[in-house]
Amino acid sequence: MAELDLEKLSVDPATQELLKKAAAEGIETIFDRAKTMKPCPIGAEGACCRICAQGPCRVPPPKKKEGETEGEKKQRMGLCGATAETIVARNFARMVAAGTAAHSDHARGVAKLFIEVANGRTQGYKIKDVAKLKRVARDWDVAITDGEGDDAKPRTPEAIAQELGPKVLAEFGQQQGEINYVRRAPKKRQEIWRKLDIVPRGVDIEVVELMHRTHMGVDQEYHNLMKQSSRCALADGWGGSMISTDLQDILFGMPVPIAGEINLGVLKEDYVNVVMHGHEPLLPEMLFVASQEPEMIQYAQNKGAKGIQLAGMCCSANEILMRHGIPVAGNYLQQEMAIITGAVDAMVVDVQCEMQALANVAKCYHTKLITTDDRAKMEGATMHIAFDEHHALDVARQVLREAIDNFPNRKAPVMIPSSKTPTVVGFSYETIQYLLGGSIRGSYYTLNDNIINGRVRGVAGVVGCNNCRTTHDSSHLTMIKELLKNDVIVLTTGCSAMAAGKYGLLSPESAAKYCGPGLAEVCETVGIPPVLHMGACVDNSRILMAATACVKAGGLGSDISDLPAAGAAPEWMSEKAIAIGQYFVASGVYTLFGVTWPTTGSELLTDYLFKGIEEELGGKWDFEPDPELAAKKMIAHIDAKRKALGIDKARERVLMDMEMRRTMDAEAAAHEH
Ligand code: MSK
Fold it and tell me: How many domains, in total, are found in the chain?
């Protein structure tokens, strides 16, 4: 095993401690493999074509000089003549398709569960949030009363859901027309999409068409490929992901601010520890219910444990943290670390972001690795217990019993790091609205007002993964702190949210410590943290809704692209991140990624994504691996938007006011002495 420089690998003390333990015990992790295996340079640029059996064809990077001879151009072609532009665009488009498929297949599963719950065919689930059910029903033109006027009688939640569920599910297979939630976007945004003919017709059709168009010998024009990439990505953001968020809120409860803890220190040595890892909250919801049953707790105590400690990993963690306050063990790069503690009796996985290496690591400890989704089995897993919504509680009980039975099998030494941090999470877009103005007057106008008067300079979404090619969590933290210092409020989801939580940025107290004076004042007045945890990866749809609510509240232009706002994924790694980025760009947002950029194999395509696309969509991509510089670019973009809105002067006044106030405070203090 290669020697590791812990400080360079992670800024998280818990991860560092466990990497030391892994090294001492001869356990190989992703951090070791990253040292010995470097990325393929041509693949990293997106310039390797392997979509037919005549290749793979690799197109070398363009020469760094003016002009290119015909001979040189030919060298930069696949056997079929595919140019670097086509090859790189196809690879990028396929990332969008895969990411959209992942979020949307998640959503389809939730929609199917929703229908079964509505018809009383499940075990353990019920409709929890009737108010949200009614709001969503209205958006789908589903009546919430029988009859009209004085004769109207309220429909039961089940009756509403029975009509709503099939309508939502039909969205996946819809072949023509427009997906429903496009209507939620600002009017101007809808017009832009319609003019460009990129309104998604259905969810599945956009993924299938993109896969077809990237097949050998089909779409060979990079603009056209990017156009369908936008339509496909919009089917994710305003389709699959938004459906997941809405139906999960109805079934499991809309998040409201709740306290929680984060990092591996949440595991308990004398408890049965069960880590729920993946993305879909369906089984975790039932694990939560089963873990509270007195018989189950007794069963754990009979095996010598004090009780059952559930903890989350990756986006499953976000889902159950924000609805139940179940603590988070860690983000993406901590999944192996959890097992290396020696204290995890079962790791229960569903879909997405689970490293195959978990099976090898689990074998070195006593941990049972339990797969639960028929779409995601793992070679070397201890067992597969298939999730079935019709018997979900029984499945959850079976999983917990497996974990409890394993408690006496722990092998020494157990080492649970002490690191864990209190957090406040659960800021759905509706909750933010309520906090800003109460349930009657609730409106984003209060936020807009503070943006207009300059106390809040702008809004940034900082989201996305960890990536072992850069120091774990470091870019998230550097970027977020730089934004806060400059009065930019941060909305966060996914593994970025967990990074922020570990370092105390999800607590209201952090406002005074990290924010510029304007943002600190606003956060202290409203009583919110300066970094708002909005959920899991699918919940980036909440950020779209928050941006739309800002536009609709007035005073900041007529489209999302007018807002002083920017988005970033400074440590991205998954295809889902590219799909998310593309739907933010297509929704009018300046979106910046760190670590690496997958289209550098084509200067023309990269130029288009970083510049040209803005003329059409109002949003654009950017790449900057240095998180501080990246934050500065985001702030520059926010300032440019402020200027375009004519509110740049207000901020100067506010800053002058603060300066004057400091001077006055100093003078007053001097006077007192
Ligand atoms: S879990 S997609 S590593 S954010 Fe959603 Fe984290 Fe990225 Fe997976």
Answer: 3
> Ligand 1 pocket check: which of 353, 355, 538, 580 to mutate, most ligand atoms within 8 Å of Cβ?
353
CATH number of the domain where residue 520 is located: 3.40.50.2030
- Residue with the smallest CA separation from ligand 1 atom 8 is 353
463 Cα nearest atom in ligand 1: 4
| This prediction's pTM | 0.94
Residue 609 burial (CB count, 10 A): 26
Dist. CA 285 → ligand 1 center (Å): 19
Q: Is residue 14 part of a domain?
A: no
User: Is 458 in the same domain as 497?
Assistant: yes
Residue nearest to atom 3 of ligand 1 (CA): 465
The answer to whether residue 1 sits within a structural domain is: no
State which amino acid sits at residue 528.
Answer: I
**Residue located via tokens 């105390």:** 504
Q: Which of 231, 252, 273 is the last residue of a domain?
A: 252
537 C-alpha vs ligand 1 centroid, how far in Å? 6
Residue at 93 is within a domain: yes
Instruction: Tell whether 65 is covered by a domain.
Output: no
Q: With a cut of 60, say whether residue 657 has pLDDT above it.
A: no
Residue where a domain stops, chosen among 252, 285, 305: 252
In this structure, the residues whose C-beta lies within 6 A of any atom of ligand 1 are 279, 314-315, 331-332, 353, 464-465, 494-495, 536-537, 574, 576-577
My answer on whether 430 and 519 are in the same domain is: yes
Residue ranges making up the domain that contains 336: 264-409
Best of 318, 352, 472, 496 to mutate for ligand 1, by most ligand atoms within 8 A of CB? 352
Average pLDDT in the 518-533 region?
A: 95
Percentage of the residues of the chain whose pLDDT score is greater than 90: 89
* pLDDT reading at 613 higher than 80: yes
Closest CA to 252 of 290, 282, 293: 282
SS3 459: strand
Rounded to an integer, the average pLDDT of 259-273 is 97
Residue 208 in contact with residue 105, Cβ under 8 Å?
A: no
228: pLDDT strictly greater than 70: yes
Listed in sequence order, the DSSP H helices in 407-504 are 429-441, 445-452, 474-485, 494-502
